[in-house]
Amino acid sequence: SRYGPKMPLAVDCTAELVRCKVLDSSGKLRSHELILSYGLALVRFVNLITERKQKMVNIPLRQLAREVDIPIWVVDLRHELTHGKLPQLALCRKGCDVVLDWLRKTYWSRQLGNNLCEETEDEDEQEDTEANTEMNSDTWE
Question: In the chain, how many domains are there?
């Protein structure tokens, strides 16, 4: 709310993608409507993120995506959504998950001082340790 109409792109994209996931889990929209919702959010993500890297000369989206480490298949999905036949809902869901993960690693972990990534790794290590502890017969004795 502090930014008003100048919301950071990553925040705006995250909000749109999360909104799609919430709508999807609500069960209120049909498959076609969900594809359109996910599609718009994914197209906007690729366009907005790569737009910043665009110079005076047009650079192909695939090259720009490679520079910022966005999977090429997400750019191809954006192309299909924009110019081709609409993809299956499962592919849109997967694209949303991959892009949200990219945003988490690239934007949100920086905002939180990498605590988000470290917490995830620490939680995984703690779960592994707990699982190993449960399996250790000496602990039961």
Answer: 1
Residue 96 lies in a domain: yes
Please say if the pLDDT value at position 137 is more than 80.
no
Residue 129 lies in a domain: no
The residue segments making up the domain with residue 87 are 9-110
What is the dihedral angle through the alpha carbons of 103, 109, 112, 114, rounded to the nearest 10 degrees? 180
Q: Which residue has the higher pLDDT, 119 or 137?
A: 119
> 63 pLDDT exceeds 50?
yes
Residue 106: predicted pLDDT? 84
Is pLDDT of 57 > 60?
yes
> Is 92 part of any domain?
yes
> Is residue 3 in some structural domain?
no
Provide DSSP, the chain: --STT---HHHHHHHHHHHHHHHHHHT-S-HHHHHHHHHHHHHHHHHHHHHTT--SS---HHHHHHHTT--HHHHHHHHHHHHS----HHHHHHHHHHHHHHHIIIIIHHHTTTHHHHHHHHHHHHHHHHHHHHH-HHHH-
